[in-house]
Amino acid sequence: MEVVYEDNHIIIVNKACGEIVQGDRTGDQPMVESLKQWIKVKYNKPGNVFCGVTHRIDRPTSGLVVFARTSKGLSRMNELFRNGNVHKTYWAIVKNQPPKQHDTLTHYLISQERNNKTYVTKPGTKGAVKAVMDYSVIARSNNYFLLEINLHTGRKHQIRAQLSHIGCPIKGDLKYGAPRSNPDGGISLQSHRIHFIHPVSKQLVDVTAPVPHDTLWQALAAAIDGEKQ
Questions:
Q1: Which helix (H) or strand (E) holds 35?
Q2: Domain boundaries in the chain?
Q3: In contact, 73 and 80? CB cutoff 8 Å
Q4: d(C-alpha 69, C-alpha 175), whole Å
């Protein structure tokens, strides 16, 4: 359990790809249950331990997830998320060069439950929701590009679907058009940074995830400074 921030009301964990935040039909143990056990052991707590899920990221995605340690923390974090006051930055590795160095993507998305996939569709399509995000190319290697992404909306599979639609599927994301899977079965998408005003203390919480322990991730992260020059 890689905890990167903790106080009396919230706890932020760096999720590995393949872990699930909350229980699903697979029956695999979710992070929220593992975290309850971690808190119980660390603080020698008797009885049941409270731990609330404030948001989720996809199973094959890695990076920061915020949990609540108290009911007050949970209700107030839920309100922050509802009102768009939690700011998340993602990093993604793609093989194809995006059309522009920086751009704002606006699409309408519709999800199909039968195959758990989201599609870009025409405005006005029944059930479609507007999705907006910004991306910037912040580093490149001979074969890959590292993108920094800021979401204006939080739709299911939004980053994966929108990048695929512009011809830039995320590395390893077979569901959205990548030619090959990654060795670990995940996709090269990380919830990299999260910042918000703490709902109880009113102090700024600004947390960045460590770069994944992977040769390509490390090389692209090291190239960021060169890209800015």
A1: helix 31-42
A2: 3-228
A3: no
A4: 34
Amino acid at the residue 176:
Y
pLDDT confidence tier of residue 226, bands split at 50, 70 and 90? low
Distance CA 179, CA 182 (A): 10
What's the CA gap between 56 and 155, in Å, rounded? 11
The answer to whether the beta carbons of residues 142 and 114 sit under 8 Å apart is no
Instruction: Read off the pLDDT of residues 5-55 as tens digits, 9 standing for 90 and up.
Output: 999 999 999 999 999 998 777 778 899 999 999 999 999 988 889 999 999
Tokens representing residue 184 in the block: 């670990």
**CATH class held by domain 3-228:** alpha beta
Whether pLDDT at 101 is above 60: yes
Which stretches of 56-196 are DSSP H helices? 71-82, 158-165
Query: Is residue 154 within 8 Å of residue 54, measured between CB atoms?
Result: no
pTM value? 0.93
